[in-house]
Write a structure and sequence with these properties.
This protein has 238 residues and is α/β, with parallel strands linked by helices. The protein has five helices and eleven strands; from the N terminus they run αβαβββαβαββββαββ. The chain has a single domain, classed as Metallo-dependent phosphatases (Purple Acid Phosphatase, chain A, domain 2, 4-Layer Sandwich), CATH 3.60.21.10. 19% of the residues lie in helices and 26% in strands. The radius of gyration is 17 Å and the shape is globular.
Length: 238
């Protein structure tokens, strides 16, 4: 990753890490390793609590986020405001409700969380972790002109709709995943195919081979926070 950052002159790296522990959750060790690689903020989603040891880690690492619309009292925070190389920025993590756990309204939560960001912070990135295209698109339009980018996560498959919305917000429905792409959303194919056929319980394991990293590169004007360009790029790691 550091070669990519250097080659592309990347100022800020944001990654969703909720499935980094063998496909389910994240551990403190993995979070620390990813941050040590140069990732500035790790966002989460519906699998963020899968590893119990992460619960006590959240108060010690503000750069690890969980969706801000989780119920009050949940460990950690869904908003991070920081500075890197003189650039002030904020990252907001939200989770959708359609076909997912019925948690608090992400749209009202987005408004409330954005009000917490100091006015001199212009670069604002949103990870919207949601199931449906419609809910993600709605959030993109809702936040257009209020944030620099709305990047969808959760479905593991990169979409081809990267664009700059009229208000200057970069948008993509889903950035995709980092992991084995000869798979069914990262898991071994055969057990999942069988389950679709016989509806019996099956043990899912992370697949191997054809490892790819799906990304988007976003160019943002630091003066006003408006996105200038968004480019979808896939790196083949094998």
């Amino acid at each position: 990753m550091q070669d990519i950052v250097s080659h592309r002159s990347v100022d800020l790296v944001i990654a969703n890490g909720e499935n980094s522990a063998a496909g389910f959750g994240i551990t403190p060790k993995i979070a620390e390793d990813l941050i040590a690689l140069g990732i500035s903020v790790l966002s989460g989603g519906n699998h963020i609590w899968d590893r119990k040891e992460i619960l006590e880690y959240f108060p010690h690492e503000p750069r690890l986020l969980r969706p801000a619309n989780f119920p009050p009292g949940s460990p950690g925070s869904g908003l991070y405001v920081g500075e890197k190389n003189g650039l002030k920025f904020a990252v907001l993590n939200l989770q959708g409700r359609t076909f997912m756990t019925p948690i608090d309204d992400p749209f009202r939560t987005a408004v409330a969380e954005l009000e917490k960001i100091p006015p001199d912070v212009k670069v604002i990135l949103v990870d919207f972790h949601a199931e449906t295209t419609s809910e993600k698109q709605a959030m993109g339009w809702f936040l257009d002109g209020r944030v620099s980018a709305v990047v969808g996560t959760h479905t593991h498959v990169a979409t081809a709709d990267a664009r700059i919305l009229p208000g200057g917000t970069a948008y993509i429905t889903d950035v995709g995943m980092t992991g084995p792409h000869d798979s069914v959303i990262g898991m071994e194919k055969d057990p999942i195919i069988r389950r679709f056929q016989d509806a019996l319980p099956a043990r899912f394991s992370v697949a191997e081979g054809n490892v790819q990293m799906n990304t988007v590169f976003i160019d943002i004007n630091p003066e006003d926070g408006r996105a200038l360009a968004i480019e979808r790029v896939t790196f083949h790691i094998d």
